Amino acid sequence: xxxxxxxxxxxxxxxxxxxxxxxxxxxxxxxxxxVDAGAGAIVMRSLFEEQLVAEELALHRYFDHSxxxxxxxxxxxxxxxxxASGSGPYLAQLGRLRDAVDVPVVASLNGTxxxxxxxxxxxxxxAGASAVELNLYEVATQLDETGAEVEARQLEVVQAVVDAIDxxxxxxxxxxxxxxxxxxxxxxxxxxxxxVMFNRFYQPDVDLxxxxxxxxxxxxxxxxxxxxxxxxxxxxxxxxxSLASSGGVHHGTDAAKAILCGADAVxxxxxxxxxxxxxxxxxxxxxxxxxxxxxxxxxxxxxGATSFGNVADPAAWERLNYSRILQGWRxx
Length: 332
Ligand SMILES: Cc1cc2nc3c(=O)[nH]c(=O)nc-3n(C[C@H](O)[C@H](O)[C@H](O)COP(=O)(O)O)c2cc1C
Fold this sequence. Notes:
Elements: E1 6-8, E2 11-13, E3 17-19, H1 28-36, E4 41-48, H2 49-69, H3 73-76, H4 88-100, E5 105-110, H5 118-126, E6 131-135, H6 147-164, E7 169-173, H7 180-190, E8 194-197, E9 205-207, E10 212-214, H8 225-235, E11 242-246, H9 252-261, E12 265-268, H10 276-294, H11 299-302, H12 320-328
Helix pairs in contact: 1-4, 6-7, 8-9, 9-10
The structure holds flavin mononucleotide.
């Protein structure tokens, strides 16, 4: 049997399949059953900077109002109200997950400005997060902020979080950079432990009935996997960063492809959501069977076997492939 143990962000995982950031970790019992079914780690949904800032502003307004109306009111204020608002419920859930499972629990922060909210990263570390995944999801909408400025701002956020905590930081990226490899190389300089490729852009659609914007969240399909495979293959063993895939893994063979291209861990969300434990059991079984059949003794043997540096024709991962694909197309 192939030994599935792997190291991700310096954490020892018993297997590469990781429950990606999603509501699945809102239920500690479900998380425990997912670990029994083969999850090597659990990533919590993101704590959103804008949500934290909005809640803190509301709390301040409430306190300020109370203080104004009664001079003695300040003495009635609780020392902190963090337990009920802001990151409080999230930290409580992190504690429940730590008690429920014996695998790494990764907290996730979504931040786009390097602000005081990075103290929440410290709270996550203090509450026992094994690592923090920094979700850089944002959609550029400003006409006057250049791509270089967006990247510089995001790198500042990464640096602030890396500097604030001692546990490993993983950076979850969108695929939309002019040069993903160069951006990831600059992430490596911040001291982050790894990258997760990629988040999905939730494209709003137009509803022709209501002439409104339709924000339905559509789950992924395996068609989204090749974008991840390409990025993994290009970056494998080039920057000393842990690599995780996120997006489009629905079968054990999809996970095998991600590992062959260089993934240390393979995150799953859409494939699991409809029936989490049964789906993970199936996918873990398929992956194990495939690796066994190929005769791999451990994941290290398989990891990166089809990466840029290891294939006979690395140019196939590069632009050369583009012209060949276009020119080689024939009607079926
Ligand atoms: C319902 C739902 C909630 C999600 N919540 C988060 C989140 O809070 N933070 C985050 O970084 N990604 C979140 N994601 C994105 C997933 O973690 C993952 O990156 C994406 O769905 C692609 O992986 P998949 O193809 O396995 O679904 C969410 C996805 C779904 C479907």
